[in-house]
Amino acid sequence: MTDRMQLHRDGYALLRRAIPTEWLGDLRAVFDTGVKPSEQWPVPRGVGWRYSMLDDDSAVQAVCCLPAVLAVVGELIGERFFLSQVEGREPLAGGGHQVLHRDLSAQRPGDIAIALAFFDDYGPGNGATRIVPGSHRPEPGAPPFDSNDESRSVQLSGSAGDILVFDVDLVHAGSLNLIGARRRSILISYFSELLYASHLETVGLRNVQMDTSGRFEPADFVLR
What we know:
Elements: H1 4-10, E1 12-15, H2 24-34, E2 49-52, H3 58-64, H4 67-77, E3 81-91, E4 112-118, E5 130-131, E6 154-155, E7 163-167, E8 172-173, E9 185-192, H5 196-201
Antiparallel strand pairs: 1-7, 2-3, 3-9, 4-7, 4-9, 5-6, 5-8
């Protein structure tokens, strides 16, 4: 069960085995089929990663709309929201390292939530995500976050089917894939409905192919 107070204090929830095991084989196949080289994306992709176009696939959409995920997203955003973007990402052997960073809210703190759904087991060896719990809401007067300060970062580990859901302002980063083991995932963005107009202005640059007209009400989902 996800505790509301802890969720807002830490800025994230890690939903263990949220994706049904029987879905994973098809999801991995969808990911691999959708992999495209950098030059086939509207904006060049980063070096050291494999990227997959898969946002309009029905199996991927089912993951994005899992009730447990939508309940956490609704609690974080706190108002009507929509699914804005989905893309597949996988760190290559020797790639995937990122400095700690925030993706940043748009108009108010908490108006965007992000989810990482893992299709393979993940840990320090294959570039698992690092997070800094509680970093999404700095105390008034706190010094700017030092992206090189790893003292509070936690590197996650877990199983295929886990989903990490977090506030867009939570400090996080990908890590170096040391052993070259596969770590396929989808990065999902959920926006407050108030951001829909600005979302539409950039759908081409972000290669959004899916229908984003659907809306979700936080009250329709029970936090578990």
